[in-house]
Structures are given as C-alpha cells and as structure tokens.
Design goal:
The chain is an alpha/beta fold and 86 residues long. The protein contains three helices and four strands. The chain is globular and about 30 Å long.
C-alpha cells in the first residue's frame, strides 16, 4: 500500500517506521521542510517529499499534526487531492 504521512513528530515518525516495517511504501512531509527528514528517511526507508507532492500516488493519507493546524493544511492541499473514484 502507498501511504502518505503529513507530520514527522513522535506520532508521524512512529507510524512511518511501523508502516515501513509492515512492507508499505511511505512518503513523509512536514512543515519544517524535507531536509529535516533525512534521518527518518535513512532510518526507515521512507521517502521525504514536499507538501504539495504528498497526496500524489497514495492510497491512504495520515495527518499527524496538531489539530489547530488542520484548517490551514486542508486549504494548502485540497486542490491537489485526486477527486477520482476508486
């Protein structure tokens, strides 16, 4: 399964590792920029991508950010999400 994760704090990083250990393809992003995700990439085998690309070619999107950040986040990625039927 192709999984995108927004947020690389304790929850996002843990989910990234667990999903990769289960054999899934994982793409990660965060608000601080993907350069800060290099150690998580190395440790897990996930791929860091810029926020606009996180919703491309995924089956599931996990949002692991503080609740107060969700409204701004949804405005930033809403037009990039494929609205097609599966």
């Amino acid at each position: 399964m192709n999984i995108g994760i927004i947020g690389a704090g304790q929850i996002g990083a843990t989910l990234t590792a667990q999903y990769r250990n289960a054999g899934h393809t994982v793409r990660i992003t965060n608000a601080s920029g993907i350069k800060k995700l290099k150690s998580l990439e190395t440790a897990t085998g996930a791929t860091a991508v810029p926020l606009p690309e996180i919703v491309q070619d995924i089956d599931i999107l996990v949002i692991a950010v503080p609740f107060c950040a969700v409204p701004a986040l949804s405005q930033e990625i809403a037009d990039k999400i494929d609205k097609g039927q599966s």
